[in-house]
C-alpha cells in the first residue's frame, strides 16, 4: 500500500483505490476507518469513478461494484456495512449487527438518520458526502464509535454535540476520552452562503460567529464549517488536543473528491467508513 500526506490526513492507495485516513484514528489497532476519494471505481462521466451514492442516476450495479472494490482495498468486510439515511436533520441512531446491509444490499428502512453509533465489533458505519462535513468519533475506553453527517443545517443544529451526548447516554462515554475528527468537506476558502445561513450561525454567540463568518458584502458571507464544528465539539467537552480537522476542501480538490458546489449537483458521492474490528473482541 502506498501513502502520502494530504493536509492532516494520509492519502493511501491499494489495488488502484485511493482513500484517506486520520493518523489519530489509525493509532488504535482495534478500529478501521477511511474516507473515500473519486479514484479507483468503475463509474463513468460525472460519477467517475468511485461513486458510493445510490440514487443519483448512476447504475446501481456500478455503485455496488464500487463498494466491493473499496471494501477490498480499505479492509472492510462488505457484509458489515450499514448506511445512514441523511436528510440534514440531527437524528442519531444506535445500530447493531441486525442493521448490517441496510442501505447497501438491503433497503433503507430509516426515515431520517444523519448520525450512526455502535459498540458492536463487525458493524461498519457508512455516511455520504459531497461538501458536507463528516464527523468521526471514537471512545477508546468504552470501545464505541460514531459517525455523523453535518452540513450547515446539521452543524448549526448542534450535530457534534448531539453525537457526544448520544455516546454518553448509550455507552457511558466521558467526553474527555473521545477522539474526534472533522473530515474532508467544503472549506472556508469556498463556502459562500447568504444572509439566512449567516444569521443562523450569528444567533449562537457562544461559538464566536464573528470569526466563523467573513462578510463579502452584498449579503454574501464565507462560512467556516470546519471551525464551527471544532468549537461545537470543544463546548460539548471534547478536548482540543483530541480533535483533528482534515483541512481538505472538497471544492478545491474536485478533481479527486466529489463537490456538490463545483459540479452544480452533477456528481457522485464520497463516503466515510468506521468500524470496530471483529477479530479484536476482548475475551477475558
Ligand atoms: Zn476550497
Write the layout of secondary structure elements.
Layout (H helix, E strand, L loop, with lengths): L1 E5 L2 E6 L2 E5 L1 H4 L4 E6 L23 H15 L6 E3 L8 E3 L20 E4 L5 E6 L3 E7 L4 E7 L1 H5 L2 H13 L7 E4 L9 E3 H8 L10 E3 L4 E4 L1 H11 L7 E3 L14 H4 L6 E7 L8
Parallel strand pairs: 5-8, 6-7, 11-15
Antiparallel strand pairs: 1-2, 2-3, 3-4, 4-16, 7-10, 8-16, 9-10, 9-11, 12-14, 13-14
Salient structural properties:
single chain; 284 residues; alpha+beta; 7 helices; globular; binds zinc ion
Q: Strands of the largest sheet, in order across it?
A: 1-2-3-4-16-8-5
Continuous helix count: 7
How many angstroms separate the termini? 34 Å
The number of domains is 1
CATH fold description: CNF1/YfiH-like putative cysteine hydrolases
**What level of helicity do the residues show?**
10-25%
- Main beta-sheet strand count, sense and barrel state: 7 strands, mixed
Mean pLDDT equals 95
Strand percentage: 25-35%
Query: Uncertain runs with pLDDT below 50, 5 residues or more?
Result: none
- CATH architecture designation: 4-Layer Sandwich
Question: What's the helix-strand series?
Answer: EEEHEHEEEEEEHHEEHEEHEHE
CATH top level is: Alpha Beta
Considering the protein shown, what is the CATH homologous superfamily? CNF1/YfiH-like putative cysteine hydrolases
Q: Overall 3D geometry?
A: globular
Hetero groups bound?
zinc ion
Secondary-structure content class? alpha+beta
Q: What's the alpha carbon Rg, rounded to whole Å? A: 18 Å
* Strand segment tally: 16
